[in-house]
Amino acid sequence: ECYVQNTAREYAKIYAAEAEPLEGFGEVPEIIPIFLVHRPANNIPYATVEEELVGEFVKYSVRDGKEVNFLRRDSEAGQKCCTFQHWVYEKTNGSLLVTDLQGVGMKLTDVGIATLAKGYKGFKGNCSISFIEQFRALHQCNKYCEMLGLNSLRTTHQNPRKATSMKSKNLPISSTIRKTVPKKAREPRDLISSEH
């Protein structure tokens, strides 16, 4: 969980660096950091901790084609999350997608990453490859996609593009945190306020 969210966070930082300077783009989504805490005295010795998000919690990206989220489509945060997904998809040549974007306003948490079956640069996501296929089929570009100069997925779906010119060293794969705790050994996420 930490590895996936913090990897997505690194992509979001690069996205912000490209988007923020654009005239009229404004605030960009931020994926908040998540930390693995070791508590040896506790009967469940590991927990994840992150900043508490206060406000209306919204799911901006969908996990299946049946879910329709109007807040995703109509809100500024929702549109910018969709643009972030499109940006990552394009920068990784369709090999990786940050998905399950949700949070309060522009602060996001509990995200997922889908990769092609072979993974991407040694990284395998925690979501099904079908999320990539679904995104490619359902994504509708918005004004933020246009501002970033992203290619329409309607044409790339039919004709796979060549790799983008972005240098591979700029595409992050977090190596500092590895998932080592089995899912059933974790307890629900502890939320605390943080100054991060």
From TrEMBL:
Keywords: Cell membrane, Disulfide bond, Immunoglobulin domain, Kinase, Membrane, Repeat, Serine/threonine-protein kinase, Transferase. InterPro entries: a-kinase_dom, Kinase-like_dom_sf. Residues 157-196 are annotated as: Disordered. It catalyses: L-threonyl-[protein] + ATP = O-phospho-L-threonyl-[protein] + ADP + H(+); L-seryl-[protein] + ATP = O-phospho-L-seryl-[protein] + ADP + H(+). It comes from the Eukaryota. Pfam families: Alpha_kinase (PF02816). GO terms for cellular component: basolateral plasma membrane. The keyword Disulfide bond applies. It is an enzyme of class 2 (transferase). Residues 1-153 form the Alpha-type protein kinase domain. SMART domains: Alpha_kinase. Protein kinase that recognizes phosphorylation sites in which the surrounding peptides have an alpha-helical conformation. Regulates cardiac development and cardiomyocyte differentiation by negatively regulating Wnt/beta-catenin signaling. This is Alpha-protein kinase 2. It comes from Fregetta grallaria (White-bellied storm-petrel).
